[in-house]
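Data deposition worksheet. Section B asks for the primary sequence of the deposited chain exactly as it was used as input, without tags or linkers unless they were present during the calculation. Section C holds the resulting structure in token form. Section D is free text for depositor observations; keep each observation to a single sentence. Incomplete worksheets are returned to the depositor.
Section A, Depositor: J.P.
Section B:
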Amino acid sequence: MTGVLFACEEPAVWRKLYAKYWDVVEAKSLGKGKKSGKLLALEKWYQEELPVAIAKRPERYVTHSELVKLMEWKLTRGKFRPRLQQLVATNGEEAVEKTSKKAFSLLPDIQAAITELSTLRALGPATASAVLAAGGPEHAAFMADEAVESIAGLGPIKYTAKHYALYLDKMAERTKTLNKADSQHDWTPHKVEQCLWAWAVANQMQLPLLKDIEIDGGKPRKEDSDSEPNKRPAKKQRTK
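Section C:
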């Protein structure tokens, strides 16, 4: 399935998938065994609460507690690494706020912002991208394994600033294409990333909710030409 969705340039297909985002999150959360339900709560915090908190500040930044919780979200979504969770907590509160504030001020220079955030302990390009996507979704996309692997030519994943740059260039390209074809012009790299993640996870879990989303050769087999309404989803160890 690598590259199938990413090659699609029809906004209606992407909107259908975006509308199912939280269904996929819930299904993945229920499949976490002992951690069942935890991912859903953390996902809602990351996607809905954190962006609002950052946007309300005179200057964008994340607090120490927010960074620790963001790491918990990231590790709960993927492979849990207790050492990283412990390591990120050793960053000082002042250092986290000062560094993240500078990183956001460097946007739209993503590479400079990634480099700045990577000076904090336990933060590599992937975690840094999660911080930037939360406060600057129009500029950044989280470097989710599933999203990267959904783009032909980007595997195997390397958790480096260079590989993130390649990934983000692809995301920006698809964002531009979708906004050009979609009258609502509300696509961002982060929104595209959410769709790629949902597509990959739903296929991995063989969820039936994708049965009405058919793509063939990068184009929909049979989709309405009109986009669906914009339905927002309901409410040093090696680091990455």
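Section D:
The first helix runs from residue 11 to 19.
DSSP finds eleven helices and two strands in the chain.
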